[in-house]
Amino acid sequence: MNRDRQQEIAADSIAALKDAEERVRATDLQMRALFLQRLEALRALACWKKERGLPAEDRELEQRTLSELTPGVEEEAQRSFYLSFLQDVLTVGTRWQHYLMEGLRVAYSGVEGAFGHIAAMRIFPDGTKIPYPSFEDAYSAVEKGECDLAVLPIENSYAGEVGQVLDLMFSGNLHVNGVYDLPVTQNLLGLPGAKAEDIRTVISHPQALAQCQPYIRRHGYCTKSASNTAMAAKETAEGGDPSVGAIAGAETAQLYGLQLLDHDINESRLNTTRFAVFSRVEYPAAAGHDKGAFLILFTVKDEVGGLAKAINLISAYNFNMRVLRSRPMHNLPWNYYFYAELEGTDSSENGQRMLNALRGVCPMMKVVGRYTAAEVLSEAEKS
Prior knowledge:
Blueprint: H1 3-52, H2 59-69, H3 76-100, E1 105-109, H4 115-123, E2 128-132, H5 135-143, E3 149-156, E4 160-161, H6 163-171, E5 175-183, E6 187-190, E7 201-204, H7 206-211, H8 213-219, E8 222-225, H9 229-239, E9 244-248, H10 250-256, E10 259-262, E11 272-279, E12 293-299, H11 306-316, E13 321-328, E14 336-343, H12 349-361, E15 365-371, E16 375-376, H13 379-382
Parallel strand pairs: 1-2, 1-3, 5-16, 7-8, 7-9
Antiparallel strand pairs: 3-4, 3-11, 5-11, 6-9, 6-10, 12-14, 12-15, 13-14
């Protein structure tokens, strides 16, 4: 091969290299523009979520994105790299939303270390958590605009519903925009150097005392109520009495300088507290969502079969009722309102017909919340 031919081949090779580099750079510029466009769309989404008290993460949407977009890459090797690229894009998008939502003000009842605080931390890790002395105060803080949302318990799998919060749902104006399950492990905490056999009195929230009743009876403990488990730990630490213990979470022991005397003392090993996220803005669920659920509150006429009429209507429109609870109405002795959790979505045509039918037999009926599926707040994923 002569020298001129070698130079020609070399020139072609350099030209091909430059062409490839230019195409890569052009693509990078297009990707930069699309990336910034995506961030702006996520900015609007983060604002929408913040208004409704929703977390930055949306795992269901992420999984749907992966399953919808990845099959479009036909070459197997490219598909693997694209999947990795797409996962990184989704992760960066979530981090961007976290950054935008750092100013979120989250109300909870209790003090640092209470289960309400732990739930708020795991649902909204980037938000500013603001404690309030009672459920009513935390709820009112959102109504008045002091906070963007409140994280409050609505039910425990062992002790039942949290009536005070259900009453706030009945009388208040906030909307439930998410439901989360926090596995609860109760522990016996004591002063440093104390022993389990030294304990004579235990302090905790009434729900926690109820969850641990068999353990308390076996050991013959006297009980004392506290506004929440963290306050029980604080009172125990400040009291300085080695015969007094607290029932609370392990994280709370570290916060108040107590030691763990016995662990997993709650009766049910499946003990879970369900928390709801309350905000001023309603979250409209997508019609036809097969994992959807919505919460309604209603009253019935004081007549024979009044409640049966409402229940039969719900069934007639093919809605499965997961939960039905009654609560006394404080302003009307011996009158009750009802709390129900229904599978499906009220925004569907069938859901709207059912709600209209209920309004015909119920003096009062309102939808108080919607969510897709209760997410488990595991410590490994959320802490």
